Amino acid sequence: MEYGFMIVVIVFMVALMWWQSRKSKQQQSKVQDFRQSLQPGTLVATFSGLIGTVVSVDLDKDQIVIDSEGTQSRWRIQAITEPPVVPAYVSDDEVDEEGNPLVPSEETEQAQLPTQSASAQEPIDVQPVVDETSADQPSASK
How far is Cα 32 from Cα 136, in angstroms, rounded to an integer? Predict the structure, then answer.
């Protein structure tokens, strides 16, 4: 019975190592395919955090030139990661202490509406303007 338990443990360890190896090879293949498919204009990031677009790729020398905000730099292709994921920015004013989004109340919605002056809210009574100086004077052409 002791040997049966040892055999089960050994088989489990071998299966676990095989599964990890397979998973690692799949991930390496995915990264290699990504690096082989790099073309000028592709948005990339480096492991050190540089974000830019590909200018040129030299697979024979395993080098890539990246343009980051007008500055070009040459990198080893192994330093390139998949396209960067830019997180959405959330202001501290939009969440509570636990990070949950705030639900706008009617008071805050009213405060955010543009204020209107009292004259804009009331209708304006417009009367035509009469030029009194020309009505009182006789015309000169008589």
Answer: 95
Nearest to 13 by CA among 24, 21, 25: 21
pLDDT in tens, 85-139: 767 776 777 777 787 777 776 555 555 555 555 445 555 566 666 666 655 555 5
Tokens of 78: 């192994």
The set of residues, in sequence order, having a beta carbon less than 8 Å from that of 123 and lying 6+ positions away, is: none
pTM of the model: 0.46
Six-digit token pair at 101?
């989004």
CA-CA-CA-CA torsion sign (45, 51, 53, 55): negative
Q: Is 68 helix (H, G, I), strand (E, B) or coil?
A: strand
Q: Which amino acid is at 74?
A: R
Tokens of residue 118, six digits = 């009292």
Say if residue 80 is exposed, middle or buried (CB neighbours under 10 Å; 0-12, 13-18, 19+).
buried
Report residue 49: phi and psi, to 5°: 110, 0
Name the one residue in this structure whose structure tokens are 């990890």: 20
